[in-house]
Amino acid sequence: MVLGLDKRYVWGVLPLLGFAIGHFLDQKETERMTRFRDKSALYGRPEGRAQPSW
User: Fold this and answer.
1) Which of 43, 42, 23, 20 has its CA nearest to residue 31?
2) Which end of the chain has fewer CB atoms surrounding its CB within 10 Å, N or C?
C-alpha cells in the first residue's frame, strides 16, 4: 500500500486512464485532420458528370 492506494485500485483505474488518454488523442487527431478535408482530392467531387459504371 503506497500513499494509501491498494494494488486492486490501481489496476482498476489504469485501464480507464489509458482509455481516457487514447480518446483524447483520437479527438485531437480528428480535429487536426478536419483542416484538410476540403483541400484533399480524397474528399473532392469529380469535375463534370461521370458516366455510370454499369
Assistant:
1) 23
2) C
pLDDT tens for each residue of 22-47:
999 999 999 988 877 666 666 666 66
What are the b/e assignments for 16-50, b being 16+ CB within 10 Å? eeeeeeeeeeeeeeeeeeeeeeeeeeeeeeeeeee
Query: Hey, what's the torsion of the CAs at 39, 45, 48, 54, to 10 degrees?
Result: 150
